[in-house]
Amino acid sequence: MLWDRPIRDLSIVMIMRGTGLSRPAFYQYFRNIPDLIEELLVDLEVEMNEAAVAWFVAEGAAKDEIRESLGGIVDVCRSHGPVFRAISESAPHDSRLEAAWSKFMGGWDHSVEERILKGQAEGFYRDGDAAMIARALNRMDAEILIDGFGRRTQRDPEVVLETLYTVWSRTLLHPTYLD
Q1: Rounded to an integer, what is the distance from CA 111 to the centroid of its chain?
Q2: Phi, psi at residue 169, to the nearest 5°?
Q3: What is the helix (H) or strand (E) element at residue 113, kind and residue range?
Q4: DSSP letter string over 64-96?
Q5: What confidence tens digit (pLDDT) does each residue in 101-130 have?
Q6: pTM
Q7: 123 C-beta neighbours (distance < 10 Å), count
Q8: Which domains are assigned to the chain?
Q9: Helix axis angle, 33-57 relative to 95-121, nearest 10°?
């Protein structure tokens, strides 16, 4: 449903009609649509963490692992882009979704910052404010991935991956490790 309409246009009746279940079944699990969306975001966070684990646990410059992890994230976003788009578009208008989106992005900021600090300490990554670099990369990723995969007409995933990888590798890797 999110492929075709914004979250604000959905109703519980519409959602349940698509499942073949009754409206009361919805209320056994969720209080309202924002509850459902928050739960979806938690599930997506697990999928994305699994997709990115190669880079988070890698040693050294991890050039190949950066690409592998970004590729996994692209795959998750290709499948679930409308959910990410719906949340990012609705967050400014719904305090609960704004808090959920902020928590989601903050978790990524922290994880990426920690990995950047590790790479900097080892001398593989460029010096700089790891927290700000993480935040900038994550916000860029969110915008590019939502734009690329949040609608029915999706961008070429290889082009999106190559774009993200180019920015990440040139931002993070010390020039010695770029080629």
Answers
A1: 13
A2: -65, -40
A3: helix 95-121
A4: HHHHHHHHHHHHHHHHHHHHHHHHHHHGGG-HH
A5: 999 999 999 999 999 999 999 999 999 999
A6: 0.87
A7: 12
A8: 32-177 (1.10.357.10)
A9: 0
